[in-house]
Design brief:
5-stranded mixed β-sheet; 363 residues; rod-shaped
Length: 363
């Protein structure tokens, strides 16, 4: 091998004295630069030796030099992984830098950025009986908390149960009831943990009672003058006690325009779980008489029996409104000549000296 004797690509053979065979081998020159290809995802940039490299581009670097790769995540992002060729070198990342020492071949760098996990805060909701609360459309049990994204607007929906309304809402120690619109309050751009306290309250309804002469009415054991009202909590059972005076009875009860007389039991009407104002009208009526008097006037010789009882001339007897039986008993050698029932002559209607009055409606 006489390669070392070549000077400026010239080999000199001095005093040649025999046949000589020369073999020359050529090879490629060693490169003076290598390439570094950079690929990265959305969420940051990459610099090669302090120069920004567009994703997918190639940067030339000098052979055997140290190549500094600076990875710069955008705000809200971080580096998820760095791959050099097929090797994951994420663990080598220091202060967002990786160094390829004395580069001796082309390199391929792939960087994946990832969004930072959002910072969250908690919103705790405490509320009384009578409703529920939703935070960002999610139902929250009283005294429980919900995590929400930092700097987001938080919607708090207040949902009263039937018969209840919102009495007050506090955000921390501050009463913010006047900020509630359509049962919703918004906490803008939340930046700290929050606590909400909601108080529900029963609705109040008015019950007015009007009643006629002939008795009294009590509402939930409270005496109420006709034409006056009482206040009641929503969902309370209303008990209407109807007390007729002697000689009177209940004729009709109306709630609004609806006749509810058939719902009265033992003079008591119950309206369960009241959810609106009510107006009650009670009408009393005098009892119809159950009996009347029959007065008997007799001339000539004979007797008259009313319902089997002999009646002296000019005396009276009490008879039922459902009717009575009249018997005419002439003495021997006498007959019934004429009978007047009130002013009506009923002589011809008497059969076998008996006349039946089907009903009695007056004395």
């Amino acid at each position: 091998d006489v390669t070392s004797q070549v000077r400026d690509n010239l080999l000199t053979i001095t005093s040649i004295s025999e046949n000589t065979n020369i073999t020359v081998v050529f090879e490629k020159n060693a490169p003076v630069t290598y390439t570094v290809k950079v690929t990265y995802s959305e969420g940051g940039t990459v610099k090669i030796n302090d120069k920004v490299a567009t994703s997918g581009s190639t940067v030339n670097v000098s052979v055997s030099t140290n190549v500094i790769i600076l990875i710069i995540p955008s705000s809200g992002y971080h580096v998820k992984s760095v791959t050099l060729g097929n090797e994951d070198v994420t663990s080598l990342l220091k202060e967002n830098k990786i160094t390829i020492t004395s580069i001796s071949e082309n390199a391929n760098i792939t960087v994946i950025f990832e969004k930072d996990a959002p910072v969250t805060y908690t919103v705790k909701a405490t509320y009384s009986k009578g409703g529920t609360v939703k935070i960002n459309d999610q139902l929250v049990t009283s005294e429980k908390s919900l995590s929400v994204t930092a700097l987001s607007d938080v919607k708090v929906m207040i949902i009263p149960d039937k018969g209840y309304h919102l009495e007050s809402i506090k955000l921390g120690d501050t009463n913010v009831t006047n900020q509630v619109k359509d049962n919703v309050i918004t906490i803008p751009t939340i930046s700290t943990n929050k606590e909400i306290t909601v108080i529900f309250e029963k609705d109040i309804y008015i019950v007015k009672v009007t009643y006629s002469e002939g008795g009294d009415v009590k509402l939930n054991d409270q005496n109420v003058t006709s034409g006056n009202s009482i206040s009641m909590d929503a969902l309370t059972d209303l008990k209407v006690l109807i007390i007729p005076n002697n000689g009177y009875h209940l004729k009709q009860v109306k709630v609004g325009a609806t006749d509810v007389t058939d719902q009265v039991a033992n003079n008591l009407l119950t309206i369960p779980a009241i959810l609106e104002n009510k107006e009650i009208t009670v009408t009393f009526e005098k009892n119809a008489p159950t009996s009347y008097t029959f007065q008997v006037n007799v001339s000539g010789n004979g007797k008259v029996k009313v319902d089997g009882k002999t009646i002296e001339n000019g005396s009276s007897v009490t008879v039922s409104v459902t009717g009575t039986k009249l018997e005419f008993l002439p003495d021997n050698q006498y007959r019934v000549a004429k009978v007047l029932l009130g002013s009506k002559d009923i002589t011809k209607e008497i059969v076998d000296n008996v006349y039946k009055v089907p009903s009695v409606s007056s004395d």
